[in-house]
Amino acid sequence: MICAKCGTEYEGSQCPKCDGPVIKINNSDYLARRKAYEEKQAKLKRKEVPGKDRTDRIDKTEKKDKKTHASKSKNYDEGVFDITKVDMNQVADKLKKGRDLFADSKDRFAKSLEKNAKKNNKQADENTGIKIRKADSSGIPYKKAGIAAAVILILITVVVFTVDIITKKNYNIYMSDESKIYDVSSLDSRYVCDKSGAIFALDDDTFFTPEWPEGIDKDNSVLNVSSPKGSYFATDVYDSAAGMYTLYIWSDDVCLKAAENTYEHNVYFISDKGTVIYEETETINDNGKTGVRMLSMAEVKKDKSKDDGYVCEVNTIERSLNQAYVYSSKDIIVILNTDGRLYQYDYGRKITTEVDLYVDSVSALGSSTGMYMSGAEHLNAKDDADSYIYTVSENTYYVETKTAKATLLKGVSGTGNMYVYDKKNDYVYWLSNKKLSCARFKDGEISDILFLENTGNNMNMIYLADTQELIYINDAAQLIKAEKGKKTFITEAVKDGSLSLVKNTDEALTYISNGKQYYIKNVTASPVVICEAGELTNTSNTGIYKKKIYYYGADGQLYTCNLKGESQNVIGNVERFFVGSYIR
Questions:
Q1: Are 388 and 332 in contact (CB under 8 A)?
Q2: pTM reported for the whole predicted model
Q3: Gap between the terminal Cα atoms of the chain
Q4: CATH class for domain 409-496?
Q5: Which end of the chain has fewer CB atoms surrounding its CB within 10 Å, N or C?
Q6: Rg, Å, the chain Cα set
């Protein structure tokens, strides 16, 4: 080995002459590379090619190689390191930060490489037939650039792939019976926890098994919910003797009371910073009759003056609640009170923005459906949750949360509507009293209003946001696709109410036709028979995991088959199955 500091050749891990840097090597890897190098040099010396000019070039090449390889011998152990001393958390952070940088730079590098390649090709064309040596040497930078490009592209692929592995959630398939939850991702099912010990996030797929604080009566809890990463939990406990509900917000470090009153509490939103938005509902009698509904927000904050170092600040947002929807990516709550006052509340900045008065109802953007409905989930955490629709008498308005400005959708009317807004193609669809219509909606103006047709009694409709396709069952039991205001026939004899989006997919559908349940990968794919459906109508619990379809048969048992509808297997009586993430 040659010392990188003084040039002395030596054996061992450190130069004896100058006490240069200690070199850590993988001995077997070093010897293998050394042997390969020596064999290559011996092969080059044995090689004989006739011709004086060729011999001269070989001699020059050998001299050049000797110089080159003498230099390279200094780097035999370059890149060999002790992986046990690597901090993988730091590696993950650096890879995550670098992924976007690589993604942005690779296009610029490709353009630069293309430009240089064209320049080199042009020079090669000009010099061909004049100076052979010059033409040959001009190709060397181009080859080096090609090798560099390949290396960088490989690095980009490795970095992106590694970051995806490090940052991706650990999703598995879980099943539960009346009391236990099992992980069934592998061939053998594995017990995870009792249902009573699991606390789910609001997505109802991510769950945790935290250590409960001693001050909470776990057995009398009527509500338990977790923040997305399990940093905070909210629990509502009912004391039947006192007729009181107590809402707790807790974590590994603190347990605080947010509310203690006769109102039952329903959590709309909980963050990993300890912010909880919840509804308070007055129960009038034991038959379930309710009275006043309020919307409140509690925030856990640090306070050195308190014994535990924390305080819970509570703010009542609305005392006469009718509807409320949280768009958490925008820190916005859309609120309609019982007097018809519609407004937005920015819970991050504590700012109220008035929208309209005498409003009848609000249709919020549903997180799971991509449609605007009055019965949408209370929480939508998606980035595209930035608008909603409301009605005043016969008029319908569209509002973007950024401006809170209402735009009249002239000609769009009806009650109990469901709406779809295809922003990419400037179309809006609405369903009212089983009548499906559409119109162009561009630059705040409605035009080209068109009645499409009547749907079935169940008004069964699915919107595929990624492909801008609206799928529904019409009153003639046909499965229809609407796209850019035009209808396309898919199939017939479809059972009303049986159309569902397959869980864990973006565009796969399932439905029942002629007594059989079908699966289609997308609207243009050939249908695959899953099973005999019998009297079954509800297909909403059909899902896909690792190229297997999971579905409930007519007998109520859970089955599985492959994507071709073959290799059916019965799993058994399962209360629920879901693709989710368990975090201890």
A1: no
A2: 0.71
A3: 50
A4: mainly beta
A5: C
A6: 33
